[in-house]
Amino acid sequence: MQYLQPWNELEEQEEQLRNQVNQLPAEQKKAYYKQQSTQLKDPDTYASLNWLFLGGFHHLYLKKYRLFAIEFICLVISITGLCLGYHQAVYLLLAIAIYELPQLFFSQKIARQYNYKISEKIFTELAN
What UniProt keywords are attached to this protein's entry (predicted)? Predict the structure, then answer.
């Protein structure tokens, strides 16, 4: 994900894709919107998951299963380590927090970029 991609650039990409979709024949356009409605993710839901839950559960929402597994395992290891008296485990917990901060603050953009990529993939499949 490009956290620093300007909003207007993302909006321009989305607008170009909408214009391309509008040029499709009616049947293809209908198929595009039908597929899109089942695959797109709500940016607000993603942002809420990002704010409310620890352990990377927001990655599940965007189907990033490997990233979720890694982050969740690291969280479990760090909490277990702290409970067992290994104070160095706090560094792993801090690393997770530092990794999560950009995702927390750019969650709306991340979800919109995900939706754009999905929409672009659907368009490419239907246009060919």
Answer: Membrane, Transmembrane, Transmembrane helix
CA angle 118, 120, 125 (to 5 degrees): 95
Nearest to 60 by CA among 70, 5, 32: 70
pLDDT in tens, 95-112: 998 999 988 899 999 999
* Amino acid at residue number 80: T
Cα–Cα distance for residue pair 76/74, rounded to 1 Å: 5
Q: Indicate if the alpha-carbon torsion angle 79, 80, 81, 83 is positive or negative.
A: positive
Left, alpha or beta for 55 (phi > 0: left; psi -120 to 50: alpha)?
Answer: left
| Integer Cα distance of 49 and 59 in angstroms | 9
Residue in the structure block whose two tokens are 């909003």: 7
Per-state percent for the chain, helix, strand, coil, to nearest 5: 80, 0, 20
- Alpha-carbon 105 to chain mean position: 12
Single pTM value for the model: 0.86
